Amino acid sequence: FKVAQAHHLVLLATEARKQGNDAQAKKWLGKALKVYPASTEAWLEKLVTNFLNSQWEHFSKNLEDAIREVPVRMRFTLFEGLAETVGLPGPWKDDSDATEEDRSRFFELRQAIIPVLEKNNPDVLMRYYGSWVLCLSKDPSLATSWLEKSLLMDPDFWPARLDLLAKSLDEAEVPAVVRVQLEFFIDRARRVKRFYCRHCGIKLSGVFFVCPKCQSWHSISFRLALTD
Fold first, then answer.
1. What percentage of the chain reaches a pLDDT higher than 70?
2. Where is 38: in which H helix or E strand?
């Protein structure tokens, strides 16, 4: 089963990377992509490695290759998985604790991701994750534009509405009592489980490649609408 075989080869590559054995990690990833060129896990591990080593040209090239190879319905896991693995903050979060090195890396990440997305005609989810990167690199006006465009593509896409509401709340003069209530509901809404399994319907808050309930492979979907 090629999907599972590639998945376990990537686990070996990840372990080799963490042990500092980059040559062995590269070997395992090469085998994974040979077995299954659409392996989301393999492309994600390549992107994580590029990010950690500040290999931005390789990052852009691998992202473009990944977008070409990975099924459309799974592309969002590249961005969500990257955010989870390397600890990128979500949209509009306070990054006052970020170091100058962090801010420089966020800017480089923007330079590596946004041109690739623009060239590949980003869909709703790619625009949403692109807005994360734009916000991290301190380009809030462009981030807002990307969120608004994602809503034009899908008016039911609730995460974009939530982030636009949070941003407008920061900029608007709102009575204190109203602000407290809105901030409460925004905080609760951000905790909604955003992913679900297409086969069994279980909802989860993090990326998964094997459903923990029904054991189906690559059945994850993003809840574009809250009714999903």
1. 96
2. none
Tokens of 34: 């040979």
Return the sign of the alpha-carbon dihedral for residues 3, 21, 27, 87.
positive
The reported pLDDT for the residue numbered 90 is: 65
Least confident of 51-55, 104-108, 147-151: 104-108
Burial of 191 (0-12, 13-18, 19+ CB in 10 A): exposed
Record the tokens describing residue 29, joined without a space. Answer: 């990833």
Contact criterion met (CB below 8 Å) for 207 and 84:
yes
Nearest to 90 by CA among 190, 209, 222: 190
pTM: 0.91
Closest Cα partner for 140 from 118, 156, 163, 162?
163
Q: State the Cα–Cα distance between residues 196 and 226, nearest whole angstrom.
A: 11
Half-sphere exposure of 46 (CA within 13 A, CB side): 27
Given a contact cutoff of 8 angstroms between Cβ atoms, the answer to whether 213 and 227 are in contact is no
Place of tokens 């961005």: 79
Radius of gyration of the chain (CA): 18
CA 70 to chain centre: 14
Nearest to 158 by CA among 91, 226, 222: 226
- Residue 15 CA to residue 21 CA, distance in Å, equals 9
How would you class 171 by CB atoms within 10 Å of its CB: exposed for 0-12, middle for 13-18, buried for 19 or more? exposed
- How far apart are the C-alpha atoms of 139 and 109, rounded to whole Å? 13
